[in-house]
Amino acid sequence: MGTTQLETVPEPKYWHLKTVLSDALDSEFAVGEILPNERDLAARFGVARATLRQALEQLELEGRLQRRRGVGTTVAPPRVGVAVDPVRHTWPGAAGDDWQPVDATETASVPAAVARLLETSPGQPVHVVRRNRVTHGQPVAAELLYVPCATFPEGAGPATGAATASSSGQGRARAVLRALQGLSLEGQDRTVELGSARADDAKQLDRLPGAPVLVVTTRYFAGGRTAAVAVSTYRADTCRLTFGDSESPVAALAG
User: Do 221 and 95 share a structural domain?
Assistant: First the structure.
């Protein structure tokens, strides 16, 4: 089978139109302004409405446009800069952490990818802490923090019953987070990849299932092994992730 030279492949018409529209958004429209209807836009750029819709859908995925029922298509505000690790070398829940605990459960079943990172044996109980993050009044991320019960030395884990029987889901979550603070954190690593919103995450993020998201997976090390894994799901349409401390970001995604 022969190879295809990318430079010989023509650019799809909708993609070229997306670039033209993006330039127009920058030069002709203000944030929040309603775009003309599809018929007028298609006539202006001399394209079929199906091509126009493809371009508009791509711009919506990239966070440049917002479609609001009963209003129309409006120019979206710039993405919100969200620091991924504003407090480095600390456990989740430490001072300066702006994630909000929602609830916690204990389970013997975790996703296979997480189990591999945790190096847990089948049936080993794991605390699962659900947290969310809100910026400027908008939900921007949801997180599942997985902490094997074996992470905590005897007598150093969550207070008896606090992580499993408290009437407050937030109380259970805070109990696990407090227990983590008693351990000596030896390091952490982090990966970022593009993904699709699962049903639970989509509900928390006010998005449809399958919407594009940025998935940040963080491993925390203590006692010479992985002590916890956090899987954080960020809205790809509104977030611009920054890395490093919040005063001096060193890299950005989805800008």
Answer: yes
The pTM for the full model equals: 0.71
Question: DSSP 3-state assignment of 151?
Answer: helix
Q: Give the number of domains in the chain.
A: 2
**At 17, which helix (H) or strand (E)?**
helix 13-28
Q: Are residues 60 and 124 in the same domain?
A: no
Give me 113's structure tokens: 């990818």
| Phi and psi torsions of 177, nearest 5° | -65, -40
DSSP per-residue codes, 20-70 = HHHHHHHHH--TTPBPPPHHHHHHHHT--HHHHHHHHHHHHHTTSEEEETT
Q: pLDDT tens-digit profile of 159-198?
A: 645 444 445 789 999 999 999 999 999 999 999 998 888 8
Tokens of 109: 């079943």
- Domain of 30 in residue numbering reads as 6-75
| Edge-first strand listing for the sheet containing 239-243 | 80-83, 239-243, 251-252
